Amino acid sequence: MEYLLLALGLAIIVVGAMILTDGSVALAERFGMPEFIIGLTVVAVGTSMPEFSVSLLSAIEGNSDMAIGNVVGSNIFNIFVILGVCAMISPIIFSRTNIRRDIPLCIAASLMLGLFTLGESVHPHWSSSITRAEGAVMLVCYVGMIWYSLHVAKRCRDDKSDYIEHSDKERKSLAVSLVYVVAGLAALIFGGEMCVDNASEIARSLGVSESVIAITIVAGGTSLPELASSVAAVLKHRPSLALGNVLGSNIANILLILGVSSIVRPLELKGVTVNDIWFCIIGSILLLASAVAIGRNKMTRAEGAVMLLIYAAYIASLLK
Q1: Neighbours of 22 (CB within 10 A)
Q2: What is the mean pLDDT of residues 105-132?
Q3: In CA terms, which of 69, 74, 214, 318 is 20 to 30 Å from 258?
């Protein structure tokens, strides 16, 4: 029964992703906003709702491993799997804004996570938990990042690749576009939760530890909305929307989700290891290297394949 419900959840996610992408693109066209910013905000936060619900409920129940592991695993999945799959479908082009601002912001968020959780591994008297004060700092940084991105987007309109071109075709009305966005998000959240619940049951029946479940099954399940919406965006020739979705989701996962969760209850690093945190940080740095040095302003199909192989090796190491 769990396998049937898992398949149904995946189907709901795919449909929701297509609807959300249509609505988001329509909103971006109507308001003249960069599609990257739509991906960074509306789509990214919306598709991160499964992670938010899992981590928040886990924090309330005192399960730090699930709360932190879900976010760390999701961020790793987003970079190595989602961008890897998207790049294999169609090479991802990085704009100057992505390289100079957006990817560095993602790296900064990852480093902040490391700063708050790697304490004892650096110094014996430093804490490895995310306190309420640190959670508040994360939230302030997230609000500041969103404000900064929107502010810069309004001033820097010279990078036309980030903006959706206005066409002569009849555009969706504002009401219809909003209905598409809300319906798509609802389907993604509902389908994502269905996938997570049933995948977790399947994993437990196979005797997998809870920390591994959080980083692999739960993280992969809660990242399915990001995967579906990003692939749908690439298939619709909106790669900036896909990239914005991934970067925005990673930033929201750390600063927004862990920020709120740690304010509810301080999160202590237990089953999730230092290596997992480092791998999360390295993933963001590797993305910048891909944009600047390796692919030279784009992630090629070959790089996408390498990303997927790295993720497979990481999961294999966890399951040993």
Answers
A1: 18
A2: 81
A3: 318
Per-residue DSSP letter, 303: H
How many Å from the N-terminal Cα to the C-terminal Cα in the chain?
Answer: 28
Model pTM score: 0.79
32: left (phi over 0), alpha (psi -120 to 50) or beta: left
Distance CA(41)–CA(152), nearest Å, equals 14
3-state secondary structure of 224: helix
Distance CA 282, CA 111 (A): 10
pLDDT higher than 90, residue 255: yes
The letter for the amino acid at 259 is G
Sequence-distant (≥ 6) Cβ neighbours of residue 71 within 8 angstroms: 51, 55, 113, 219, 253, 254, 257, 258
Q: Do residues 54 and 218 lie in contact, with contact meaning Cβ atoms separated by under 8 Å? A: yes
| Cα separation, 54 vs 196, whole angstroms | 9
Q: What type of residue sits at position 4?
A: L
Provide the percentage of residues in the chain whose pLDDT is more than 90. 25
- In angstroms, the CA 30 to CA 43 distance is 16
What average pLDDT score do residues 103-130 get?
81
Which residues, at least 6 apart from 262, have a Cβ–Cβ distance to it below 8 Å? Answer: 59, 130, 131, 132, 134, 135, 138
Give the mean model confidence (pLDDT) for residues 237-266: 88
Q: Which residue has the higher pLDDT, 37 or 100?
A: 100
What helix, strand, coil percent values describe the chain, rounded to 5? 80, 5, 15
| Highest-confidence segment of 16-30, 40-54, 224-238 | 224-238
Architecture of domain 2-161+170-318: Up-down Bundle (1.20)
What are the structure tokens assigned to 306, written together? 């390498």
The arithmetic mean of pLDDT across residues 206-223, rounded, is: 79
Q: Where are the domains of the chain?
A: 2-161+170-318
